[in-house]
Amino acid sequence: MSEEQKLRYFNPPYTIGSAMIWPVRKIHRPTMNTARGMRAKIVDRMDRTLECIRRHYAQEPGSPLGDVTTNYADFFELFCTFEQFVEFFHFQDLVTPEGKIDFFLKQGEDFNRSGVPVTTDEYVEVREASLKFIKLRGNRMADWVEENHPDIEVRR
To answer: Domain extents for the chain?
Structure first.
């Protein structure tokens, strides 16, 4: 990797576009955030997490986070549908017009393999897609604030 890539990948700035809130309850362990980070099929990737959430709403099997989304079903019920969840949290840039997830890694994205990229090229592909998504989501959120709360100053 180039020095520029290393700098962007290993020390990216924290932005609101990279943040997400998840519910937490002592009786339901692991939490969504813990499971996302610790499970090899997800490895903290938002694209794979969103596919698990999509499967939860569609009641499809095979989700590595199925136990967690079931434990927090009441949280997901607040949004009624996957589309409303996506809209509420500004995840539109991870969903195709057909309602499928636009995975960061374009080849071999299924839960039969780890979410960890296995080559340098895969790593670069995942990091570039992730950083692009974070930027797009941050801009989408900023646009929403400017449109709905013009009295709030938005820094981009």
So the answer is: 3-148
